[in-house]
């Protein structure tokens, strides 16, 4: 996770077939677990198909993953995170709208969670990646089913320059503990999970989330005010679950 940095400029070097095959396998697994419709393309002149990005200037994006969904309930997220842990030892789109109902909140959280799983796999393959929102991305190499829309996209490839360093708030501002418990007294697995969550990508490094430990050792997570807050929440939940391994997180 610490190796993941936002990379917006890429070289023309093709991504190896073996790496693409691995990503296709990961996407198949993520789609099965989440009911999302995630898709990948590689080797295009412009994998963003000319659409402007909501934030950030990208260059040389020949490969991308489209994070697409139609909205559904949040599934059991722990299995995919535990699998990853074994490897770790302008105009607005739907992605930029504030989540205003339970279905949209669930969709954006899922996109953050499973998009982060794929982002981490990309980094494990020795590549660079960055999240992006494409404004009004209705037509392109991706396919949309009934009611589906692209929430976010992941650019990936060989970095043309190193990514930016992580900036983070203090852990005390991002977690909530049972009354009377100090951060230093939190279980080791929770502290490790929080350390991982603090590395999660969020828009403008706002970190709009709070992860709460309850006395029965269950955990809850909520979004706070911020841009694309529920996508960022999903990313943080993914990293938290991976960081706590081999502990099994029970989410409320």
Short key terms for the protein model shown above:
alpha+beta, 5 helices, four-stranded antiparallel sheet, three-stranded mixed sheet, 7 strands, single chain, 252 residues, NADH Oxidase, globular
Quick summary:
GO terms for molecular function: oxidoreductase activity. This is Nitroreductase. The chain has 252 residues and is an alpha+beta fold.
Unreliable residue stretches:
72-80, 86-98
The ordered H/E elements are: HEEHHEEEHEEH
Q: How many β-strand runs? A: 7
Strand content: 5-15%
Helix content: 25-40%
Task: Characterize the overall form.
Answer: globular
Counting structural domains, the number is 1
Strand order of the largest sheet: 1-2-4-3
Average pLDDT for all residues: 88
The CATH topology, please?
NADH Oxidase
What is the CATH C level class, in words?
Alpha Beta
Distance between the termini: 25 Å
How would you sum up the major sheet?
4 strands, antiparallel
CATH architecture: 3-Layer(aba) Sandwich
Query: Structural class, judged by helices and strands?
Result: alpha+beta
User: Tally the helices: what do you get?
Assistant: 5
**Rg from Cα:** 17 Å
Domain Putative nitroreductase TM1586: 1-69, 103-243
Protein name: Nitroreductase
Organism: Bifidobacterium tibiigranuli
GO molecular function, one term: oxidoreductase activity
């Amino acid at each position: 996770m610490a190796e993941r940095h936002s990379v917006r400029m890429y070289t023309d070097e093709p991504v190896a077939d073996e790496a693409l095959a691995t990503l296709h396998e990961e996407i198949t697994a993520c789609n099965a677990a989440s009911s999302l419709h995630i898709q990948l393309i590689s080797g295009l002149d412009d994998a963003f198909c000319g659409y402007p990005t909501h934030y950030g200037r990208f260059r040389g994006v020949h490969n991308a993953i489209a994070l697409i969904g139609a909205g559904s309930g949040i599934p059991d997220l722990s299995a995919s995170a535990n699998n990853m842990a074994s490897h770790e030892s302008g105009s607005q789109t739907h992605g930029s709208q504030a989540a205003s109902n339970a279905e949209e909140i669930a969709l954006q959280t899922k996109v953050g969670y499973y998009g982060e799983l794929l982002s981490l796999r990309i980094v494990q393959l020795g590549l660079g990646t960055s999240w992006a929102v494409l404004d009004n991305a209705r037509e392109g190499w991706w396919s949309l089913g009934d009611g589906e829309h692209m929430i976010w996209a992941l650019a990936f490839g060989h970095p043309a320059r190193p990514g930016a360093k992580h900036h983070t708030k203090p852990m005390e501002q991002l977690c909530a503990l049972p009354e009377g418990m100090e951060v230093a007294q939190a279980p080791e697995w929770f502290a490790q999970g929080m350390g991982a969550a603090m590395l999660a990508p969020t828009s403008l490094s706002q970190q709009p989330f709070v992860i709460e430990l309850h006395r029965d050792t269950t955990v809850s997570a909520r979004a706070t005010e911020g841009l694309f807050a529920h996508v960022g929440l999903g990313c943080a939940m993914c990293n938290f679950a991976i960081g706590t391994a081999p502990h099994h997180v029970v989410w409320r």
